[in-house]
Amino acid sequence: MKIIINLILLAFSLSSFAQEQGLEIVVTGSRITDYDEMPAVTITKDADFLVQEIRLINDSRSPELRKTEIIESINNLLISSKKIKGIELSYGEGFLTPVNLNDDSLQLIESRKRVDTNYVDIFVKVALNKKHSSKEQIAELRSFISNAKPVSRTEIDIEGDIGLTIVNPEQYRYNILKKINAENSKVKSIVDGSCEIKIMGLESRVMWERSSISELTLYIPYETDLTCK
After folding, report:
1. pLDDT tens, 116-137?
2. 22, 35, 95, 201: which one has the fewest Cβ atoms less than 10 Å from its Cβ?
3. Whole-model pTM?
4. CA 201/CA 220 separation, integer angstroms
């Protein structure tokens, strides 16, 4: 009983942490094709945003001028985003944060390939709207980027394919746990009454994989041990 209580408390603390932080996870890559390593029980959720990573590059002579021109270019994007409902700008690696030009964590990086060149990577997002098709919203996202107004020697490059983001995946933990419990109750009712089912790994964090252009498959990587006397 003590072990079970400890696992529940751990799961609760992890979930509470994620909810308090409101973490937004970016998921890149194409649709997955191999489900062999997934557990039997999963849930499918719409992503919160479609997202495209872009790189703002500037090769002006002066480091100060490069920074100024890139920041002004990002500011132009921010101004434009406020005119279009659902468009937002974020940055970060794995976990995204809204772009704030007053935040020192938005650092310009020196290019290793080009002399006197700096760049910064940001994400342009459009909130998924079920009233519109994913195709329409991807077109809207790309149109926004193509209509951007970079300042002076700033260039904007597209980085990778359209990705997805999900805000606080840990909020779905108990939905998954309920589904796991229902599945194992069903298995128990089917197998011989002398069989015992043990579930391991419920303390694990919620995991995710992209399952379509706009959906994610969420799961807890648990294991089931069926022992029959």
Report:
1. 899 999 999 999 998 899 999 9
2. 22
3. 0.81
4. 8
